[in-house]
Design brief:
Chain A: InterPro entries: ARM-like, ARM-type_fold, MMS19, MMS19_C, MMS19_N. The complex is a heterodimer of chains A (1034) and B (178). Chain A has 1034 residues and is an all-alpha fold. Helices cover 68% and strands 0% of the residues of chain A. The two termini of chain A are 73 Å apart. With 178 residues, chain B is α+β, with helices and mostly antiparallel strands. Chain B is 30% helix and 8% strand. Chain B has a three-stranded mixed beta sheet with strand order 1-2-3. Chain B is globular, with a radius of gyration of 18 Å. Chain B starts with 35 loop residues before the first helix and ends in a 7-residue tail after the last helix. Classes of the chains: A mainly alpha (1034), B alpha+beta (178).
Chain lengths: 1034, 178
């Protein structure tokens, strides 16, 4: 007891937390009780001095707050005591705190709860309290409403009126969140029928919420939180309806777009609660207001919300138990609105027809009866319109509207597999007008869209009707296919794709043969441009249609046969063909089609791709090898490297999907063909190789045509799983041989690159340590500095090294860094320094060889790791390397590296990078400049403050250098001019107006010159940039 | 604000003229799918591609109609490619004709002005542009044509900040296509 007294005295003097804790500790331990505390406080609680009384109550409240529940006895006494202290203005605040702790105690009795509330209503003057104190009052009431609801209900009117006057005028968002929660309970659970107006006043006065959270708001209350809490009050009782609707209407007519949207969303939740009677009474007024938002929309978002609210309104009116009856006569709003819209639809070509259709489409997703009524009105109307000879010029817009309705009916949530499709009664007529619409160029797009909607509606069309649709679409192919615009082609394809998903038979039996036969057997001559466009169009149809396994098989068979026929025509020799290039281009297009279709299937993980290792690849090898063997240097179509490249693509795509075992088998034959001179091993097909022909592409005396076939060899190697061993005695020796061949024997860039790809891929998957050590220790790269060698050979050495480094870097091999270091050592070479510098970027650039699909070993974030090591070194080098030549080489390395890594890898370094990048823009190399500008564009993010600051710092120099780079007089590269203009176009969004304001007039004047650029693509960007600078203002 | 034509006829826009989707111009060869990214820049020759009717149409087709902001001048058939003509003798002289949706359209001056401003900003200075309403399509055709081709009156109009603001809004959609 004494100790408590001592604690109290100390606390009154110090106000420290320790004394409170000690007191609570004593109570918890049972060595003192709350009663002791009250006794100890005695003199303070009754002191004359205001401050002492305040402190006395405060101490007690703090102790209660910290006390464990089971130690708080004599609740009622404490509650009565605290209530009493509410009367004293000096002790109100600590007493509220005390009550706040007491009301959550489980032992609080109902009479106590009522007493607390009464005391609050009687003594607490909300206007005299600050926000945090009012918050305590709301918290007390909230706790009581939660725990002693029944007791409070018995207070009846007293509680409601008391609370209303307490809560009136509250403005603080944190308090409002609690107040709204309390109001919702009152509205739902208490008998409030006589107080609706008062409660309406203390809730609806906050609508719409316009609160903007201050920056760094400690409570983190958002506008959305408040909106949500308020909405839960507004839709708490149907009794609000008659009062609320006029208010909502007013906000809808007069409000800002934000208010309108808030009101619409609130109506969406309120209308169903207010009920059909209120909705019906106000239907006209609501519809007239909503109509305005739909027919003269402020913005698309508000428009779609207004449509949704219209749906809610209709559902509220007709969705009740009485509206559920399907065949009930539709009266009132739905009928009137429908009629309104149909009146507008008498002129389908006019602008108002579109929103009218949107309304009808919205009705289709409301209630079954309204949906049925709407379709029953609208569909026959549109069909009649279509068939009316006076309206023939309006058929296209009519079908547009019809197609919209078809889609709406299909997507309607009322539609499920159990109910027959809503469109069923009109199926025949609709199908009829749509197929008529197909035949006309202007309406075919809409007709196709409508048909697609019908085809994709479940249970709507029978199989023979699908056949009928396909038949009618096929008719379009009999006309000139090149006449179709891109849109129509897309629509045809998407319709046929929808049909093939349900019934592929119709497409494979009728459409495909039609397309295949329209492909010519002989390539059209050079001048026959329209013929060429025709086969391109046909092929593009085929490649997009034939993805489904059965259809794809058909594609492979038909196209590979066609390919053989074109490349090796029977009866004629190529000498008879005066101009073989169109032939090669045709064959190339066919191969391209196959490659694109395979690529699509690989992307979709189709399981039927691997079987084409046996079915397609041997034919391709056969064709190319045969042509290379019989040519004797003459031009044969299939020896064209452009064709070989596409075939190589197909080889990689198909082989990468095969299992390791299958690959092993294939690769064995492949090596037999390429290394042992047994070309038959990997081929299959009807071209018989001449008896005496020798196939040895890797021999030093091989013809260029044979050497070109290394592309196919490499294409297979890069697709292998890492477990697949190469069928050679020693892989290291093989790699070495390939490397020598690549540097010294390859005749052209294609061969050179192909062999590098193979080396890199093998090295990545099957690291040959001995090979690596040998290359590092002998410093194989050093031959790049050998001035005795031809420059192209020296460059090849660097390229080969870069590919090897890449193979290692991608899998984070420990030797990778040493490989990179060797490249850096070459920076100072006067001939190949820049090549070595560019190679740094190549090491981590994305490529099509070392990919997951090709089973490469790729470590997570390897590019970031690389740039974390290299970027600081390169930045340092570019800043401080001794000679300008070396500095520039570092700059080149920087631009190439930055271009290759994701921007997150360097974004944090932007402030030190910017000056270097600006220097890079002065280097006399358009590719480097393009890299720099691409990088600047990549980091140009108007929303990121930090990067904008850096741009602002350098804004004037950026403007000056970009203007230089976009003038045709100074910059011959189209690409650089285009992206320099693009950068100028984004600058106004990155930099505050006051920074660049002095330059505006000059920039506009200079940009005027770029409007006269010889290239259209540059002019387009110039217009964009100049427009943005015109709009640029403070 | 008086509404001159509350429910105008809407026309389907034509596609932006079909870019060679298969091959580069005058090529026998189909484009490689993987060269798509660089394809844009492949033509590095600075061979002159003259500004033509389509290119000028491209500049004005997407300007918003002042009365129906959600629709473009093209959709309302106010402008069209054939209505842009080059003077045969002086290739830098261009006439742009437009068709108001109704003959009493009070917005016609504004539409003409927006076309004028867009072209002033986007065509090289050497061009001389005449803007006219289609003969017989407007009740005060003569006055309108005179007003639109009077430099000083155009300049004066552009000094009216309220007018300029609406103009910028109508022009803001002009470069959104492509």
């Amino acid at each position: 007891m004494d100790s408590i007294q001592r604690l109290v005295r100390t606390w009154v003097a110090s106000g420290r937390q320790e004394e409170i804790q000690e007191t609570v500790g004593a109570i918890s331990a049972g060595s003192a009780s709350l009663l002791d505390v009250v006794k100890a406080l005695g003199e303070y609680l009754t002191a004359e001095e205001d401050e002492l009384r305040n402190k006395g109550v405060d101490f007690l409240s703090l102790v209660i707050a910290a006390c464990p529940s089971d130690k708080i006895n004599r609740q009622s006494v404490l509650v009565q005591f605290m209530c009493g202290k509410l009367e004293d203005t000096e002790t109100v605040i600590p007493a509220l705190k005390g009550l706040n702790s007491l009301v959550v105690q489980p032992a609080l009795t109902s009479p106590d709860a009522v007493d607390v509330v009464k005391a609050l209503f009687m003594h607490v003057k909300m206007r005299a309290l600050v926000q945090s104190q009012r918050f305590i009052v709301y918290s007390i009431i909230d706790s009581l409403v939660a725990k002693h609801r029944e007791a409070l209900k018995t207070m009846g009117n007293e509680f409601i009126t008391g609370y209303v006057s307490l809560a009136e005028g509250e403005k603080d968002p944190r308090n409002l969140l609690v107040a709204f929660a309390i109001a919702r309970v009152l509205l739902i659970e208490f008998d409030v029928k006589h107080y609706i107006e008062q409660l309406f006043n203390i809730t609806f006065c906050y609508f719409p919420i316009t609160f903007r959270p201050p920056p760094d708001d400690p409570y983190g209350i958002t506008t959305e939180d408040l909106k949500k809490a308020l909405r839960e009050c507004l839709d708490a009782t149907p009794a609000f309806g008659p009062l609320a609707i006029p208010l909502f209407l007013e906000k809808l007519t007069a409000g800002s777009p934000v208010t309108k949207r808030d009101t619409l969303q609130t109506l969406d939740v309120c209308l169903p609660v207010y009920g059909s009677l209120v909705a019906k009474e106000n239907a006209r007024k609501l519809w007239n207001t909503l109509k305005l938002e739909i027919f003269q929309p402020t913005d698309p978002e508000t428009e779609s919300m207004a449509l949704h609210t219209t749906q809610v309104l209709v559902q509220t009116i007709y969705g009740g138990p009485t509206g559920a009856a399907q065949d009930q006569e539709i009266e009132g709003l739905a009928k009137d609105a429908c009629e309104d819209c149909l009146k507008i639809l008498k002129e389908p070509e006019k602008s108002q027809a579109k929103p009218a259709t949107k309304v009808l489409c919205a009705f289709v997703s409301t209630t079954p009866s309204v949906s049925k009524f709407t379709l029953n009105q609208a569909v026959p109307h549109l069909i009649k319109l279509f068939l009316n000879p006076d309206e023939i010029q309006n058929r296209a817009p009519t079908l547009r509207l019809l197609a919209d309705l078809i889609h709406a009916a299909r997507q309607s949530p009322l539609q499920d597999s159990a109910t027959p499709p809503a469109l069923l009664p009109y199926k025949d007529e609709v199908l009829g007008v749509l197929t008529v619409g197909l035949t006309n160029v202007s309406s075919s797009l809409n007709a196709l869209d409508g048909l697609n909607g019908m085809v994709t509606t479940d249970n709507l069309l029978f199989d023979d009707e699908l056949g009928f649709v396909v038949h009618n679409v096929n008719e379009l192919f009999t006309k000139d296919v090149t006449e179709h615009s891109e849109d129509v082609s897309d629509a045809i394809l998407s319709l046929l794709a929808s049909v093939s998903a349900i019934a592929p038979r119709h497409v494979s039996e009728t459409t495909l043969p039609l397309l295949f036969t329209s492909l010519p057997d002989i390539a059209p001559p050079r001048t026959a441009e329209s013929e060429r466009l025709k086969y391109w169009t046909t092929l593009s149809f085929l490649k997009r249609l034939c993805i489904q396994p059965d259809l794809f098989e058909m594609l492979v068979i038909r196209l590979s046969t066609k390919l053989d026929l074109i490349c090796v025509p029977s009866g004629t020799t190529l000498q008879d063909v005066p101009d073989p290039e169109p032939v090669a281009a045709y064959a190339h297009s066919i191969l391209r089609t196959l490659a694109d279709a395979v690529a699509k299937k690989v992307e979709l993980d189709h399981p039927d791709v691997p079987k084409y290792v046996d079915r397609l690849l041997p034919c391709l090898f056969n064709l190319h090898m045969y042509s290379a063997l019989v040519s004797n240097g003459d031009y044969l179509v299939a020896t064209d490297p452009r064709l070989v490249s596409v075939s190589a693509e197909i080889v990689t795509l198909v082989l990468q999907t095969a299992a390791a075992q299958k690959q092993e088998q294939f690769i064995k034959s492949l090596f037999a063909a390429y290394l042992d001179g047994l070309p038959q091993a990997v081929t299959e097909g009807h071209h018989k190789f001449p008896e005496d022909a020798v196939f040895s592409p890797l021999a030093s005396d091989a013809s260029t045509l044979q050497k070109n076939l290394i592309l196919l060899f490499s294409a297979a190697l890069v697709a292998l799983h890492k477990e697949v061993a190469l069928p050679v005695p020693e892989e290291g020796l093989f790699l070495d041989k390939l490397l020598q061949w690549s540097v010294n024997q390859a005749d052209n860039k294609l061969q050179n690159e192909a062999s590098e790809h193979a080396i890199s891929s093998v090295l990545n998957k099957r690291v040959e340590e001995a090979f690596l050590t040998n290359k590092l220790e002998s410093n194989w790269l050093a031959r790049a500095t050998d001035t005795g060698l031809a420059l192209p050979i020296r460059r090849r050495v660097i390229l080969a090294w870069a590919w090897m480094t890449k193979a290692l870097q991608v899998r984070s091999h420990p030797s990778a860094q040493r490989f990179t270091d060797r490249l850096v050592e070459l920076f100072n070479d006067s001939d190949i320094g820049w090549d070595a510098a560019r190679a740094i970027g190549q090491v981590v650039s994305t490529d099509k060889v070392l990919t997951k699909r090709n089973h490469a070993v790729i470590k997570f974030l390897y590019a970031q790791k690389f740039s974390n090591v290299m970027l600081p070194r390169i930045i340092e080098g570019a800043k401080s390397a001794g000679e300008p030549r070396l500095q520039n080489a570092y700059l080149v390395a920087l631009t190439s590296l930055i271009k290759s890594v994701p921007k997150s890898a360097y974004l944090h370094q932007m402030s030190s990078l910017m000056p270097l990048l600006l220097r890079g823009l002065d280097l006399p190399d358009s590719e480097i400049r393009a890299n720099v500008i691409d990088t600047l564009l990549a980091v140009a993010d108007p929303t990121a403050k930090s990067s904008s600051n850096i741009v602002s710092e350098h804004a004037s120099s950026l403007v000056a250098t970009m203007l230089k780079n976009c003038m045709v007089r100074e910059m011959p590269s189209v690409r650089v001019r285009v992206i320099a203009l693009r950068y100028l176009a984004v600058l106004p969004s990155l930099v505050k107006y006051d920074v660049l304001h002095p330059q505006k007039a000059m920039v506009l004047r200079e940009l005027a010159k770029t409007l006269d650029d010889p290239k259209r693509s540059v002019r387009k960007e110039a217009v964009e940039a100049r427009t943005n600078w015109y709009k640029y203002s403070g | 604000m008086e509404v001159f034509n509350p429910n105008p006829t809407v026309f389907a826009p034509t596609k932006s003229h079909r870019v060679a989707q298969f091959a580069k111009p005058h090529s026998l060869w189909l484009n490689d799918a993987d060269s798509d990214q660089e394809g844009e820049y492949e033509d590095e020759s600075n061979e002159v591609e003259a500004i033509d009717q389509d290119e000028i149409f491209e500049l004005i087709r997407s300007i918003s109609d002042p009365e129906h902001r959600s629709m473009s001048l093209e959709q309302l058939a106010v402008v069209s490619a054939p209505q842009i003509t080059f003077d045969l003798k002086f290739p830098d002289r261009v006439t742009v004709e437009f068709t108001p949706t109704v003959p009493h359209c009070g917005m016609s001056t504004f539409i003409g002005l927006s076309i004028r401003v867009r072209l002033l900003r986007s065509l090289p200075e050497r061009y001389k542009i005449d803007i006219k309403v289609k003969p017989g399509s407007h009740q005060s055709e003569h006055a309108l044509n005179k007003q639109l081709n009077d430099k000083e009156r155009v300049a004066a109009a552009l000094e009216n900040p309220a007018l300029l603001e609406v103009l910028e809004q109508c022009l803001s959609t002009a470069s959104l296509n492509a």
